[in-house]
Write a structure and sequence with these properties.
Layout (H helix, E strand, L loop, with lengths): L15 E4 L10 E5 L4 E5 L1 H8 L6 H11 L6 H13 L7 H15 L3 H10 E7 L2 H11 L5 H20 L1 H6 L7 H28 L7 E6 L2 E6 L12
């Protein structure tokens, strides 16, 4: 392979690379963030080493330099694989006529038939309603106590008590099911479900804020036209621990 004749284009300057959590096998990972498209890409140690020496500008030079200074082996094919990944996700600075033609072809290929578009957006689409970051910053000090271990213990005890009462009065509990088949019962059920789901999504939002992640939006997502609440916690990719 004539890797030394492959001139590598520069990476886009706004890309961000930061440490990620350990993989399941214990190896370190990194997250590559594209702010223009708000996409995160998880990469391993070899890919990170290749990116950190991208300024060498040639496939062969990168592979040889990493092999000289590190304890693991990198081939020219490894460098080319990273190149193909970056190229396919538009992470390079590209200019000129050929670059423009490539972007035009890519945009043309991404166009969907109207029927395909309709099916996709019928199955799933989101409507952002709130940008809650400022609200989370103001209100978090008032609910931070929820994350104390004593609260977890208290909730666990309440759960055990409720399970005991439920088992003790099982016949009375099952007799109330018929109530949900009435209009009033359906209204109560819908209200309880909506309230529980709202608390659930706020839990996502506050926990993300607690660990320094930006919550870009909260709103309603439609799954086959069925509405559910959602919270955008994409910034959780920035966390360096899975626990």
């Amino acid at each position: 392979m004539a890797g030394d004749v492959v001139v590598l284009p520069p990476l886009r300057e706004e890309l961000d690379l930061f440490a990620g959590p350990c993989a399941f096998d214990g190896s370190p990972t990194w997250s590559l963030y594209d702010p223009a498209n708000q996409h995160y890409y998880r990469i391993g140690i070899i890919e990170c080493e290749i990116l950190s020496h991208w300024n060498l500008g040639a496939v062969k030079a990168i592979a040889e330099h990493i092999n000289q200074i590190s304890h693991f082996s990198v081939t020219e094919d490894d460098v080319m694989a990273v190149y193909q990944f970056l190229f396919s996700h538009n992470l390079f600075q590209i200019q000129g006529y050929e670059a423009t033609q490539f972007l035009l072809k890519q945009a043309q290929a991404a166009k969907q038939h109207w029927f395909t578009w309709l099916i996709h957006h019928y199955l799933f689409f989101k409507i952002p309603v709130l940008r809650p970051d400022s609200f989370l910053k103001r209100s978090y000090p008032y609910i931070a106590w929820i994350y104390q271990p004593s609260v977890v213990f208290l909730l666990t005890m309440l759960l055990m008590i409720n399970l005991y009462v439920l088992i003790d009065r099982w016949e009375m509990f099952t007799a109330t099911f018929l109530h949900f088949f009435s209009f009033q019962g359906f209204v109560y059920y819908a209200f309880a479900l909506t309230f529980a789901k709202l608390l659930h999504e706020l839990g996502h939002a506050y926990t993300a804020h607690r660990y320094g992640c930006r919550v870009s939006s909260m709103g309603v997502a439609f799954l086959v036209m069925f509405p559910v609440l959602y919270t955008d916690t994409s910034d959780a990719w920035k966390l360096t621990s899975r626990t």
